[in-house]
Amino acid sequence: MKTNRYKGNPIITPKDIKPHREDFEVIGVFNPGVAIYNDEVILLLRVAERPICKNKEEFKAPVFNFPKGEIEILTLNINDESYDFTDSRVIKDNIKKDGSFKYLTSISYILKATSKDGKNFRIDEKPFIYPSNQYDVFGVEDPRITKIEDYYYIYFSVVSSKGVGVRLVKTKDFNVKEDCGIIFAPENKDVVIFPERINGKYYALHRPVPKCAGNPEIWIAESDNLIYWGNHKLLLELRENMWDNGRIGGGLVPIKTEKGWLELYHGASKNNRYCMGAVLLDLENPSKVLARSEKPILEPQEDYEINGFFNNVVFGCGAIVEGDLIKMYYGVADTSVAYVELSIKDILNSLR
Amino acid sequence: MKTNRYKGNPIITPKDIKPHREDFEVIGVFNPGVAIYNDEVILLLRVAERPICKNKEEFKAPVFNFPKGEIEILTLNINDESYDFTDSRVIKDNIKKDGSFKYLTSISYILKATSKDGKNFRIDEKPFIYPSNQYDVFGVEDPRITKIEDYYYIYFSVVSSKGVGVRLVKTKDFNVKEDCGIIFAPENKDVVIFPERINGKYYALHRPVPKCAGNPEIWIAESDNLIYWGNHKLLLELRENMWDNGRIGGGLVPIKTEKGWLELYHGASKNNRYCMGAVLLDLENPSKVLARSEKPILEPQEDYEINGFFNNVVFGCGAIVEGDLIKMYYGVADTSVAYVELSIKDILNSLR
């Protein structure tokens, strides 16, 4: 399958972002939501920053103090055996040993960037969405954007010690935002909302992470107002001994094609190598899977996809679709944004 | 506080139930949902059965095979170190060691019982709700019943290897049932739906169990059709060093009082001692907590509450409210059903 990566990749890197605090450094700008507004490409970038830490015996964890309205920095001793510092993304609880995290190593917010040519972006200085309440004291992550009629619906993970859920805001102009609250309670992320009603109902893919039984897999839910969701059904499962045997979740907003709804999702192996795959869902009944890619349609191959803050990640949250072309902006190695063009026809032909 | 336990407790025990298969034994009849229908008390009992196992080296796990439509029995070797058999309720994964379960030791279904005097029950022979699909192959558990206008809404945990979620069915006559699908995706249980709209919206308490961060605590959600739910908010947290420091979840359908919505919830300590507590929620805005009980309003004290299939459990899912009186039917030690009368006034006076 042709995957036309842009020669100038990565198109946005941490060097392009000024930290929003002088004592912080930008470690990642990645996983953008994508939309067209006023004939320009809008990216809602996830920016991850961490406190600059010069003492190698220390680990600094940023936490938003929501009544105070500012980030506080917790200093942890790297020799403290109650913590597990081996994952670059999270500080785990070494006492519980159940895989749960105590803190994140960085805090993410959402930043807007705008482009006329889709390659060169003007990046805002001030955050577009910033932590603001008890549910996002560890940050806001991985936005997706679905345009329905006059509104852009923007939804993203909110992370706190109470869990990871998904919040929805809507806007007409990427300026005034209306909060619609948490649409999927913890633990859930990787929501993608379909861009139109299907037989009168809205649909979304979501990815619960249950504790006592079950895997991080893709479910589908329906709604009549985009805020309240129900009739949950399991849609797509992990596949043993394949590239998506560790965790899967929605990626791009589903694309309507003649053959069905085409969803480009992410799948990680048990070794945390993140690829993108495709699944085709019935046009009239999107809880019915018609076909699924055997092999990834995009996988970490280039240096910027292999090496970074978290290695071996391609992670698409949004794209512009023009005819047969999917112009995808995707996160690479939890560090930067890259651009690739994919053919819908090619993808459909590759599915089984 | 006065807690008038019925002298004839427990009122229903496993001996009162005939196993639905000859090769099974009933180990529990407990945690009933409660309603009044045709001037009679209806209990929807959770019945737990397990395959009779005479070989002490073996453990038999019952699993509903949903395409076949019948329960299959998996035989496990008790010396198999990939399993942890120490919890009487579940068989855990001894390789993952993350607390997740592989199988349950019993399979639950829901059985209807009817009474004119509220003490002596005629118990149906055939299950009222039985496992029927991929989401409940390990059973259906802990029903609650909310009556709203003409319908009785019955909702209960569905348990499978894909997780624990909550399904809703509705009925007018406890005979013809309409399925409304899974209203809360895994992992979630202990849903209680308020008995009327509040400022135009329906509300429910629910209890997600997130994996990567967060605790088993009580959240509140809203709906406009009882099927789709959103605007999730954290309502009630665990309390360190108190009787409800391990896990909490909704118990009875909330009771409307002059002071607010009174919710009797269950709380377990880290040592799995299950008590009932109370919380008072604002009449106009039930996501606002007005008061909460410092001490349990009911705790395991009697022999039938202390000793059983799972020791030290009082667990209320339903009650009949008459004036100041809460006539609660509650599960004891995951084994039997007991009856207690509580005074709303007493409970309200005890709250802080």
From TrEMBL, chains A, B:
Alphabetic keyword roster: Glycosyltransferase, Hydrolase, Transferase
InterPro entries: Glyco_hydro_beta-prop_sf, Mannoside_phosphorylase
GO molecular function, one term: glycosyltransferase activity
Presence of keyword Transferase: yes
Superkingdom to which the source organism belongs: Bacteria
Family: Belongs to the glycosyl hydrolase 130 family.
Protein name per the record: Predicted glycosyl hydrolase, GH43/DUF377 family
